[in-house]
Amino acid sequence: MGSVALSSGNFEQTVTGDGIVLVDFWASWCGPCRSFAPVFERASEKHPDIVFGKVNTETEQSLAAAAQIRSIPTLMAFRDGVLVFSQPGALPAHALEQVIQAVRDLDMDEVRTKISGASSSR
């Protein structure tokens, strides 16, 4: 399937839907971003059931700020509208596959219960 460009216009709609969405926050001047890009693209071809989105932090500065991006590349994973993973740094292919499998294996009922428990204890 390949990755899709995300912007402030389509980001929220994309990450709040059903299923898994991986988002790569990157910039063209960033060496680690350039090395991670082909890994991300190959994974997008291997997993057509997952949305692979890319946010250019140079052109989408307000979106990067809203997502509290402090370092690039940063990979975020959303499942069924819930942010379940966020980590800066370029991942090798095997580590990205581990993240994908971990996100697939999540019990989302359990995740939602933990989130509601955490928010009600504040």
TrEMBL record:
Keywords on record: Disulfide bond, Electron transport, Redox-active center, Transport
InterPro entries hit by this protein: Thioredoxin, Thioredoxin-like_sf, Thioredoxin_CS, Thioredoxin_domain
Protein name per the record: Thioredoxin
Family note: Belongs to the thioredoxin family.
UniProt GO molecular function: protein-disulfide reductase activity
Location of the Thioredoxin domain: 1-105
GO cellular component, one term: cytosol
